Structures are given as structure tokens and as C-alpha cells.
Amino acid sequence: MPESPIRKLVPYAEKAKKNGIEVFHLNIGQPDIKTPSVALEAIKNNTVEVLAYSRSEGSEEYRKKIAKYYVSKNINVNSDEIIVTTGGSEALLFAMGSITDPGDEIIIPEPFYANYIGFSIASGVNIVPVVSKIENNFALPEISEFEKLISSKTKAILICNPGNPTGYLYSKDEIKKLAEIVKKYDLFLIADEVYREFVYDNAQHHSVLNGFGLEKHAIIIDSVSKRYSMCGARIGCLVSKNKEVLNTALKFAQARLSPPTFAQIASEAALETPQSYFDEVINEYKDRRDTLITALNKIDGVKVAIPKGAFYCVAELPVDDADKFAQWILEDFSLNKQTVMVAPAAGFYSTKGIGTNQIRIAYVLKKEDLIKSVEILKAAIKKYNTI
Ligand SMILES: Cc1ncc(COP(=O)(O)O)c(C=O)c1O
Predict the structure, then answer these.
(1) What pLDDT, on a 0 to 100 scale, did the predictor assign at position 87?
(2) Residue 292 CB-half CA count within 13 A
(3) Distances (CA, A) of 290 to 283, 297, 305, 311, 343
(4) In terms of Cα–Cα distance, which of 195, 194, 192 is closest to 219?
(5) Which numbered atom of ligand 1 lies nearest the CA of 236?
(6) 23, 30, 200, 265: which could join 286 in a potential S-S bond, CB 3.0 to 4.6 Å?
(7) Is the CB of 237 under 6 A from ligand 1?
(8) Angle between helices 367-384 and 322-331 (to 10 degrees)
(9) What whole-number distance in Å separates Cα of residue 183 and Cα of residue 290?
(10) Residue 207 CB: number of other CB atoms within 10 A?
């Protein structure tokens, strides 16, 4: 199993904190946004006496409400096409386990969410990467690049939309092209849509189950973690209209008995979150994105892709090795007793040797802290390049 590039520098951050340094965490997608009060109230006011298992596929009431949520997003699914999971993480494991045998391959545009590597290793699946480039803002690579890589072992293409770590939002045309290729070669299209709500500049999110004729091919991965700032609830779901996929995924679900019961109560209530909550949160993230990107662009030699969704960006730094730099900045650098923790981006690629001077930044901190963080990065880059 690979180390998580997001968490591997934690011991250095902890040491810095022990030495009295304040560390701004730009490394992890843990939002500081408050969880909707409807979700928290549902737990506080609950009088449950036995915290029992739920059904393996999740509670019936909750699944019915999730289906309604999807219909409101023009994603036409029924409750029996949803399996509630322990986070989007487990949905990814179930999806990979359900459609592959050991030794099979999944094509993924890179950079991609680093834990896809861990999940594929756990499933005995090989990732075949297609490189997307910072110069193109990480747009979908040409379809011919995917076609070149399809073999008898290829079972699926996996996309993250909007993307972690890139913030890229796929256009309708890009999803259409992917739909054509998965239908042509009879593959699955797994779409990790956990950041569905987080799109900026009035752009529109296009779900793979919204009008692309992918009923047999699409599997959606979803989660309450980011949508409602409920990362600790550990609730997500797998959605598919393909009965065989659902039947197989259910066997995985039965093996682990049940998703967390209490957190399903909170997640069900979270579906009542008013639109005003999202309007505010999305506005806040958009402001943070603009603040961060403007500040990063002012540093000499820094290149940054403008995210259209989610709350991450990938930045290329004028340093020899972002891994070394990220550790050094925690161990040996501070500005006014403050420093930053970033995620080296090499861990988001499976091709060795690319992304080595890139970092991922999560803009999950308030604007003042983002501004301070970029000041620290700027001073650190200058000093690092003189030692
Ligand atoms: C793209 C993506 N997919 C899935 C997950 C898994 O989230 P969870 O298991 O908390 O639902 C994350 C978490 O950061 C993510 O960024």
C-alpha cells in the first residue's frame, strides 16, 4: 500500500506544532464549514435505545430520500438503485470489487485522488493512467489517448468530476465522448461525483446518469462528507442502474453487515438542508478560490490551474522536488512562527517522475489564512532555492 500523500507529512507537522509553530493545513480536504444544524439536531434529539445494524444496503427511508435528492438533480434513480456505504471510500472499493477480477485494469486520468491507488491495490486492480496536463488546466485528455490503452483486461474508466486534486469540471461534450467510448468497448464509467455541488462561475455539473444513455455502464460514487461538511459521519453511496452491479455490490455490503446507523440518521436529516446553506458555502469557496489563485499567480515561477469546482488546486512550484520542499517547510522554515502543510502532488500520479514539482492545495481555510499561507509559501520558495 502506498502512503497517503495527504497525510504522510503529519509527523513533521506535529513536531513543528510542538515547537510552537502554527501550521496552516492546506494538505487535507477537511472543510472548516459548519455541518448543517438539521443534521446535528437529528442526532441530539434522537431517543434511540438500541443502536442496531441497519440493512446492508442502508435504511429504506434514507435511500428513498436520497433518490428524491437525485431526481431533484435530474438524475433519475430509484431507492433500490442506491447502496449506502461507509463513505465514498467504501463505495469506490465496492465498485472496483464488483466489476473486476484480480489483474484487470481501470483507466484513470491523472492526477487523480490519491486513494484510488490504495483501493485498486486492495482490489488487485492495475491503474492505467492517462496524463492530463496543467498547461490545459487538466482538461480531459484526447479520447484517442484512452483508446490506445484499452486492452482485454480493461474494465472501466474512472473519473472524478469535479476533480480532486485538479478542480477540473468536465463539460457535457467531454462526458459525451467518454460515454461513446465506454459504450463502444463495453466498459463501465465510474464517476466520483462527491463534489457535485461545488461548482463555480455559474458552470453546470453533468452527471454521468443525466442523459448520456449510460444506464448499463455508469456507476456513481457519492458521499455526504464534503456536501454537508460531514466527513466524520462516514456515509456515502454507490448508485447504478445496472442490476448485476447492484447485486454484486450488495454482497460486498452484506459482508461488512451495515453502514453506520447513527450517521445515516444525521445524513437523512442533512437532506433537508436549505438551498441558502449551499449558496453561502459555494460563495465562500469561490471567494477563497479567487483569493488563493490571485495570490499564487503573483509568485514568480508558480503555475496554477484554475479550478472550476471542488476545493483544490494543483500548483507547479519553482522547486526541484515538491516532496522535499513540503517536508523542509515543516521542519526548517517558518515566517512569524507560522508555516504551511501542503500535499506533494507526485502521489496523485501513478506515472513515476511526473508532478514532482507540483503540490495540491485545499482551500478549506478562511481567506485571511489563505493569504498568510501564500505569503509563507512565497518566502519559503525564495529561501529554499538559496540553500
Ligand atoms: C474525490 C474523492 N472521492 C472520495 C473521497 C472519499 O470520501 P469519504 O470516504 O469521506 O466519503 C474523497 C475524500 O476526500 C475524495 O476527495
Answers:
(1) 98
(2) 27
(3) 11, 11, 12, 11, 20
(4) 192
(5) 11
(6) 200
(7) no
(8) 110
(9) 38
(10) 21
Q: Evaluate: CB of 194 within 6 angstroms of ligand 1.
A: yes
With a 6 Å cutoff on the Cβ, whether 113 touches ligand 1 is yes
Alpha-helical regions (H) of the chain: 10-18, 37-44, 60-72, 87-99, 115-122, 143-149, 172-184, 243-255, 261-270, 275-297, 322-331, 367-384
C-alpha 102/C-alpha 120 separation (Å) is: 10
According to DSSP, residue 213 is labeled S
For ligand 1, whether the C-beta of 231 sits within 6 Å is yes
For 303-356, the pLDDT digits (tens) are: 999 999 999 999 999 999 999 999 999 999 999 999 999 999 999 999 999 999
What number does the ligand 1 atom closest to the CA of 163 have? Answer: 1
Q: Would the CA dihedral through 152, 177, 180, 172 be positive or negative? A: positive
DSSP string for residues in 21-32: -EEEE-SS----
Give the count of beta carbons closer than 10 Å to the beta carbon of residue 349.
21
Q: CA-to-CA distance for 120 and 92, rounded, in angstroms? A: 9
Q: What backbone torsions phi and psi does residue 275 show, to the nearest 5 degrees?
A: -60, -30
240 close to ligand 1 (CB < 6 Angstrom): no
Give the position of cell 477540473. Answer: 168
Which residue CA neighbors atom 4 of ligand 1 most closely? 88
Instruction: Determine phi and psi for 367, rounding to 5 degrees.
Output: -55, -45
CA angle, 347 then 331 then 28, to 5°: 40
CA-CA distance, 112 to 179, in Å (whole number)? 20
Which of 32, 13, 10, 11 has its CA nearest to residue 21? 13
> Which phi and psi angles does 68 have, rounded to 5°?
-65, -40
Query: Which pLDDT belongs to residue 387?
Result: 82
Q: Whose CA is nearest to atom 16 of ligand 1?
A: 164
- Over the stretch 6-62, which tens digit does the pLDDT of each residue have? 778 999 999 999 999 999 999 888 888 999 999 999 999 899 999 999 999 999 999
Give the mean model confidence (pLDDT) for residues 139-168: 96
